[in-house]
Amino acid sequence: MLKSDFPITITLLSTKLMRKLKPKFIFLFFLLFGSLILISGCESKELKAMLESPLANMQLTTAREVARSHKDKEVTLGKPIYAKVRIKYEPTGNYTKEDVFNEIVKNIEKNGWEREWGRNDNSGQSGYYSASLPYESFSLIVEVLRRPGLSTVSVYLGHRARQIQPQ
């Protein structure tokens, strides 16, 4: 074999090998890829509870939903990242951010959530409100933010481990 024939021989051998292994390689690739999709598609019970919550599916009369995102819990660099849902509402018509904030807080209170921090009356003076709701082995938490300078009101749904009260 001449020195110049060497690359041609390698190319021919690799082509024959690929023809032989190609169906098996494609099958294994799709099997692994499909398994990864199935595994990653499983939502945690915390995220499912948040997405099924009435607060994640509110239809407001004072605002429209302009953005929504959610992320499931995971571990990054050994530290937990908790599941969360974020929804942004923008006032419609002649309504203000205060109207949107008040309607969201009324929905939270109507659904039996327990106020943790924020306003005590319907004045809407505070731009922050938080509440929690016990759920199985954890508590769902909700935070409503109305920030100066922004035209939207944000709702954050999250969770935390429920603390057992001594009797």
Describe the structure.
The structure is a single chain. The protein is α+β, with helices and mostly antiparallel strands. 34% of the residues lie in helices and 32% in strands. The chain is built from three helices and eight strands, in the order H-H-E-E-E-E-H-E-E-E-E. A hairpin with a 2-residue loop joins strand 6 and strand 7 (138-146). The model has no long low-confidence stretch (mean pLDDT 76).
Provide a compact summary of the structure.
The chain is an alpha+beta fold.
**Structural class by SSE content:** alpha+beta
Number of β-strand runs: 8
Distance between the termini: 88 Å
Q: Summarize model confidence as the mean pLDDT.
A: 76
Q: Into how many domains do the coordinates divide?
A: 2
Strand proportion, as a percent range, falls in 25-35%
The general outline is elongated
The quaternary structure here is single chain
The share of residues in helices is: 25-40%
CATH topology term of the largest domain: TATA-Binding Protein
Largest β-sheet summary: 6 strands, antiparallel
Radius of gyration: 27 Å
- Provide a count of the helices: 3
Strand order of the largest sheet: 1-4-8-7-6-5
Query: What ranges have pLDDT less than 50 throughout 5 or more consecutive residues?
Result: none
CATH class membership of the largest domain = Alpha Beta
CATH architecture of the largest domain: 2-Layer Sandwich
Helix and strand sequence: HHEEEEHEEEE
List the helices and strands and how they pair.
Elements: H1 6-40, H2 45-52, E1 63-71, E2 74-76, E3 79-81, E4 84-91, H3 97-110, E5 114-117, E6 128-135, E7 138-146, E8 153-161
Antiparallel strand pairs: 1-4, 2-3, 4-8, 5-6, 6-7, 7-8
